[in-house]
Amino acid sequence: MVKIMYLSPVAHRAGHDDLFADMARDYKLPGTEVHVTSLPEGVGRFEHIEYRSFEGMVTAGIIRATRAAAREGFDALVIGCFYDTALAEAREVSGEMIVTAPCAASCEIAASLSNRFGVIVGRRKWVDQMQATVHALGHRDRLAGFYHVELGVTEFQADHDRTASRLLAAGRRAVEEDYAEALILGCTMEVGFYAEVERQLGVPVIDPSIAALKRAEYGALLKRDCGWKPSRKWSCEAPPEDEIARIGTFDDGPAFGGRIVVAAEDGRSST
Amino acid sequence: MVKIMYLSPVAHRAGHDDLFADMARDYKLPGTEVHVTSLPEGVGRFEHIEYRSFEGMVTAGIIRATRAAAREGFDALVIGCFYDTALAEAREVSGEMIVTAPCAASCEIAASLSNRFGVIVGRRKWVDQMQATVHALGHRDRLAGFYHVELGVTEFQADHDRTASRLLAAGRRAVEEDYAEALILGCTMEVGFYAEVERQLGVPVIDPSIAALKRAEYGALLKRDCGWKPSRKWSCEAPPEDEIARIGTFDDGPAFGGRIVVAAEDGRSST
Amino acid sequence: MVKIMYLSPVAHRAGHDDLFADMARDYKLPGTEVHVTSLPEGVGRFEHIEYRSFEGMVTAGIIRATRAAAREGFDALVIGCFYDTALAEAREVSGEMIVTAPCAASCEIAASLSNRFGVIVGRRKWVDQMQATVHALGHRDRLAGFYHVELGVTEFQADHDRTASRLLAAGRRAVEEDYAEALILGCTMEVGFYAEVERQLGVPVIDPSIAALKRAEYGALLKRDCGWKPSRKWSCEAPPEDEIARIGTFDDGPAFGGRIVVAAEDGRSST
Amino acid sequence: MVKIMYLSPVAHRAGHDDLFADMARDYKLPGTEVHVTSLPEGVGRFEHIEYRSFEGMVTAGIIRATRAAAREGFDALVIGCFYDTALAEAREVSGEMIVTAPCAASCEIAASLSNRFGVIVGRRKWVDQMQATVHALGHRDRLAGFYHVELGVTEFQADHDRTASRLLAAGRRAVEEDYAEALILGCTMEVGFYAEVERQLGVPVIDPSIAALKRAEYGALLKRDCGWKPSRKWSCEAPPEDEIARIGTFDDGPAFGGRIVVAAEDGRSST
Amino acid sequence: MVKIMYLSPVAHRAGHDDLFADMARDYKLPGTEVHVTSLPEGVGRFEHIEYRSFEGMVTAGIIRATRAAAREGFDALVIGCFYDTALAEAREVSGEMIVTAPCAASCEIAASLSNRFGVIVGRRKWVDQMQATVHALGHRDRLAGFYHVELGVTEFQADHDRTASRLLAAGRRAVEEDYAEALILGCTMEVGFYAEVERQLGVPVIDPSIAALKRAEYGALLKRDCGWKPSRKWSCEAPPEDEIARIGTFDDGPAFGGRIVVAAEDGRSST
Amino acid sequence: MVKIMYLSPVAHRAGHDDLFADMARDYKLPGTEVHVTSLPEGVGRFEHIEYRSFEGMVTAGIIRATRAAAREGFDALVIGCFYDTALAEAREVSGEMIVTAPCAASCEIAASLSNRFGVIVGRRKWVDQMQATVHALGHRDRLAGFYHVELGVTEFQADHDRTASRLLAAGRRAVEEDYAEALILGCTMEVGFYAEVERQLGVPVIDPSIAALKRAEYGALLKRDCGWKPSRKWSCEAPPEDEIARIGTFDDGPAFGGRIVVAAEDGRSST
Questions:
Q1: Is F271 part of a structural domain of the chain?
Q2: Which of D208, D233, D248 corresponds to the end of one domain?
Q3: Between chain F's N and C termini, which has fewer beta carbons within 10 Å?
Q4: Which B positions 16-45 lie with beta carbon below 8 A of chain A?
Q5: Touching check for E141 and chain A: CB below 8 Å?
Q6: Residue segments in chain B with a per-residue pLDDT below the cut of 70
């Protein structure tokens, strides 16, 4: 069995945990246990982190959650936002736990199924930062472009018909005008739409939260079966625990704002 | 269950199939069936494909094997050479079958565990082409360098002590002088050495044949569970079957030079 | 006198040899002898190699032809397809013979006559691979774009008026909308159209088969007069002949499917 | 008069404020008022932020300080760490206040005085991230390399002779072996050494805290005299104030852990 | 006090000196003295240098003027053309004088106020060269594009309404269609329009002659207060004076075609 | 017959014309006429142009010579310095005449004979600029490095044994330590040494003045036989002749400082 934590870097009260618990139950391997979590109240009542400063405000919370998950013995952690928020920071303090995130995971899959892909995002505002991430991951020459649908993070699940029709229109634009051969949905809140877009457009459409969950599971299995754990050399060096203790804010307060356990046997329980 | 073909793009008589069957049995998931194959005699008595022209000579054989594997219903295929020989060509004719290869698979893992990795190869001769592959995959800025140990493909398994000591020396150079944080063994014939190098140097060391097998399995599971299959749009378009029939050499002769089946239940049988 | 082989990497029966023999006769220097050849039947009845897998299937044939040409004492070889199919593989086994190909040759000329050029191709399907080639050659910043005219390789010579009007429209788009300052016709089967497009659009238009022939002749003269032959060092090392003999498929069967000799004195004879 | 805040993103108790107040008094223009600040206790007792996770932990504090400085009417803010920690996040919430940081400011100056520069850092651990920053700023081709002196942030001011001799040795290596034409000291705690290194090596040596202060002053003057303020369009859009209020943690607690005012008339007072 | 020379690399008779003297008086710091100059008659009657060959013809004049300014003790020199004509050449012979130019200065400012900017130029003809400059400066990923308004250098000041409306239209295109977050006016003769464009489009609009003047002043102050002068190491080495004397054309004839002095006290006098 | 001008952009009195006339006679095709020229006295007594400012001072002379050569009906012009000085400027005013230069010509040849080449230069001072040129030409990934031999331009021909032994040592370093597969001599004054270096090191060694002459001849033949002339569109637009006349310095004074004619029939006469 491998144990994975799926962390939405927003407040528990945002109420997304159920969505991702359903996703985890539907897509994980039988032997995988998934805990779906989100951030505690103290970090702030974030319903989304569309702004860089919002990401910056929740970063401490992500770091605390990462440390807590590592201490609990999780094999892998997903930071559930397509900005891959605080991925480098979390990896530094994850010990032997694998950390992954939706943008990295989705691009890997899209790059293995096509030579060129487009990313459908909510607002143009996101593009500059996400594009830099896709470039840094190494997919500059595979990127057809970003396509925004004028919906904020919290609007994707509000009116499903509107969301579906906008995703389809954007995907069609990517495929027909910019020659994309695959698509990535560029927000974890676009969950639930990929199969329909795929069916209508006839190209692979990657859902980022599923991709991240599966990548975490893959990483966890590689760790368990091949022994491949995070490097701790040079830039991957972890800070000394005594220094962390002296600083004093790394482990303050609760690490999570909620938790739904999707058991290896596929059951599910909330805390 | 998912079914994976591991194809060594050299002649069956090279006798590597056993090595990779052992590897597959040790590292696959329980529900995975692996067929370890190599090329038929007609392609040529290739014991290695260190030269570009050798790769070119076996490419038709890889294409034929890919088509045969797809027809047999395999979920994924590994082309077992660190040059990722004919990966693009094979992907074009793989139908719904996933195709992957060691260099792509290894770099993905190394990039998820470190910020900078080195690749240990046999001869300097290989570097120009492999470096171009690593760059094209998107890992230019993560590449510490290539380190050659003055051993040809067929020499890695000849004298294990010599191989181990050279891999260690090269790995140490990568880590200490060029600040590599992880290592990749840049030849599938380096199989069997990664754990020892990892233990001695204290950084993740990726074995490319294991990495490719696991990536194939991961891709097969993504296909089965999420429906993510190869794109067939634009540059991914497959050639029409009637044209292939007219051309007449795509399916000539036997597709494989041997086959060892590592069953899902971990058994193993030869043909 | 220098001797050049112009090899169309398709079946002789495709019947293009006459076209390229006419071209050679019209454009070569008086002291140059050109043999126009194509692949033997055994490679497959390829009329075009628009697919990556088609290229992969003919690669062994190109390698065999290269070796045969080198043995015959040719000074230079052209691989007559704008994909520059198997250029690296052929160069490895060419001995002292120069090998060149249309895309490389055309880009060099366009780059010397303008700061920015566009490439007119048949189908969008080709672009991903050709663009990667143009980038790898070093012309990324000079590339205005690729412009497809919805014609397959075998259609260019079918209806000359249709081809001419589509090339013109695509070229105009490149020049007027994307500010191309020169054009390259991105398929050797576009032969015969460059002068008219050039006349109408007022920018240099490079024909790729002429460019490749002339680049081969230039390379042959540099070899003859300056002694500049292919490097055989490091990644340019040729495989040992005894190993090739042991493998046994390098020199199987006929190397060419036809041959038209355009003599130095401009005569012409078929075999 | 322009007003600049110089913020050390570490705890006030780290005791660096005096160093930077002296620097500010020595290098600012007469009409400039500088407030030297650091982070409040609640952020954690950080004496340095050498680790990515340390940066992540102080990011919320930097965002709060930025908002507070903007509300107080500062013209420009310096985030005083060579990682340029949270620069993008701070810029988003700075309103009309300019935000700058040492790495960006130093590279601009070095690039205007030379064609190639090296950066002298404390530990190899820093390089991966700082190099990515220098590349992203656009100086990839001007970078001779990074040179580490095996000193942590807090050690630079501990033994001045040791620090001076190591900076000199590293600088000499950069200039003599890698052909650097200018140097940047890659840590604000290297303050006080640039003039001596410059004198001994005969190339410009940029101190990053002075560079950042002067760049802030320059930006403040450009804003005052030319009206050039931060863009708020597209990716530069600021989050809505009502949403920030609803979230509730943006303005919690004290924004600063200390403050030394270096008055426009050069006086100086502590709080 | 710092002394700056603003050199228009065109003939004095072009009559632009007054425009730039007004600009200097309006934007310089009180303690700065600016001499506005242009080239002497002997260089040629250049009213603009829109062509590369025009730039080439005035380069000797720029070099002579640079040497003369350095001898007169100027702290900094502006070469007042958005091509940044002869910047590298002038920097080589400037001794301890700082040399800057509009494109470099403008991009620095735009990059500090936004993540993505567009450049509004006169004619499409300019773009190839200016784009290469912006790329070389390091702003490739920040460049939204170039937008031409079909006006030559000498036409910008001819009909102010026409110029204003075209700049606005081009700027709107950059912001609305290509998501520019800031704009740069890509010709020093666009002087006088930035404030209005800024007001109407709501994004920062950088005037290149002001930017260059202010960057020169900033560089001069850094030199005076921090001691940061041009490197003279490796590629920055200046030619030996005795060799220059032997060559004999470096200091021929008058260095300037006119001079307006904008005194530190803001007064102004012509010669 | 084609007519080529080989222009050394230094003073005639530097006395290099004989060297290049010998080279031209030895390497041109029989039907080619070559005029070897240099700059007139008025440009300055330049014996070399190792400094950027020296190049800048002779640029007007190169432009004048280009115009004169075009008027005389030359088919192609070589600017005989490895800096490829003023290539873009000269191309703009060359009318239908082809213009080329040693660095561009040499890299094309080296790239066609190897995958990786090194450049042997005189002084480290040259590297920054030449490297930028090689990168801009598109050979960044093929460049093994630059190797300087501590000789100025005028010293290469002073002591042939010293030059030969230094070129050999540098070439050996490039090949053995940095894995160069071909070499380029990075100064036209290294003429006469390539064959010996090639013989001793066993890799192709490109002489830049021969390369440039042959490339000019190749370009001239392409123009004559295929009609491929310089583009005059967009950034390649030539300045209007009436404007040039009005400016008045384009055609001042003699265009050349000397001329040796190497006739098509291989004869040779001086003026």
A1: no
A2: D208
A3: C
A4: 27, 29
A5: yes
A6: 266-271
| pLDDT of B103 | 98
The rounded mean pLDDT for chain E is: 96
| DSSP H stretches of helix in C73-145 | 87-92, 102-113, 127-137
Q: For chain D, give the mean pLDDT.
A: 96
Cα-based distances in Å from A157 to A167, A193, A204: 12, 10, 22
**What are the tens digits of pLDDT across the range E197-256?**
999 999 999 999 999 999 999 999 999 999 999 999 999 999 999 999 999 999 888 999
Looking at residues A231-238, what average pLDDT do you find?
Answer: 98
Interface test with F, best of B126, B128, B135, B146 (most F CBs within 10 A): B128
| d(CA F47, nearest CA chain D) in Å | 26
Touch criterion met for E and B (3+ Cβ pairs within 8 Å): no
* Residues of B (247-266) whose Cβ lies below 8 Å from A: none
ipTM entry: 0.97
- Cβ contact B266:C73 at 8 Å: no
Cα-based distances in Å from A148 to A104, A138, A197, E115, F264: 19, 22, 15, 18, 65
**Domain identity same for D86 and D166:** no
Q: Do B132 and F141 touch (CB under 8 A)?
A: yes
Same domain, B6 and B73: yes
Mutate to test the interface with A, among C51, C128, C141, C148 (most CBs of A within 10 A): C128
Residue B271 lies in a domain: no
Give the Cβ contact number of residue D266 at 10 Å: 13
Task: Kindly report the average pLDDT of chain F as a whole number.
Answer: 96
Looking at the structure, tell me whether residues F136 and F48 fall in a common domain: no
Assign D12 a pLDDT band (cuts: 50, 70, 90): confident
d(CA D43, nearest CA chain A) in Å: 7
- Kindly tell me the number of DSSP H helices and DSSP E strands found in chain F: 9, 10
Backbone φ and ψ of E90, nearest 5°: -65, -40
Residue E264 has pLDDT above 60, yes or no: yes
Look at the block and give the residue holding tokens 């123009």. F223
| Averaged pLDDT for residues C32-55 | 96
Look at residue C186 and tell me whether its pLDDT is greater than 80: yes
Q: Which of F192, F208, F224 represents a domain boundary (last residue)?
A: F208
**CATH number of the domain encompassing residue C192:** 3.40.50.12500
Q: Residues B166, B81: one domain?
A: no
| Mean pLDDT, rounded, for A178-204 | 97
The answer to whether residue C51 neighbours chain B at the CB level (below 8 Å) is yes
Residues 100-129 of E with CB under 8 A from F: 124-129
Which pLDDT score, from 0 to 100, does residue B91 have? 98
Whole-model pTM: value is 0.97
Interface membership of C268 toward F (CB under 8 Å): no
Contact with chain A for residue B221, Cβ under 8 A: yes
Whether residue D216 sits in one domain with residue D204: no
The confidence score (pLDDT) of residue A16 equals 87
Chain C CB contacts of E136 under 8 Å are none
Tokens of B2: 């998912």
| Host domain of residue B64 | 2-101+210-262
The answer to whether residues D24 and D56 belong to one domain is yes
**CATH for F47:** 3.40.50.1860
Task: State the pLDDT at residue C13.
Answer: 81
The verdict on C171 touching F (C-beta cutoff 8 Å) is: no
Residue A81 lies in a domain: yes
Residues of D in contact with A250 (CB under 8 A): 44, 53, 57
Q: Are residues C125 and C186 in the same domain?
A: yes
pLDDT at A228: 98
Contacts of residue E124 in chain F, CB cutoff 8 Å?
Answer: 234
Q: Which two tokens stand for residue A206?
A: 């990657």
Domain total for chain F?
A: 2
| Inter-axis angle of helices D102-113 and E102-113, nearest 10 | 170
Task: State pLDDT tens for residues B221-261.
Answer: 999 999 999 999 999 999 999 999 999 999 888 999 989 99
Q: Is there a domain that residue A110 lies in? A: yes
- Residues D79 and D160 occupy one common structural domain: no
Asked if the model's pLDDT at residue D205 lies above 60, the reply is yes
Number of H helices, E strands in chain E: 9, 10
Q: Which residues fall within 8 angstroms of residue A127, CB to CB, at 6 or more apart?
A: A121, A146, A148, D234, D235, E179
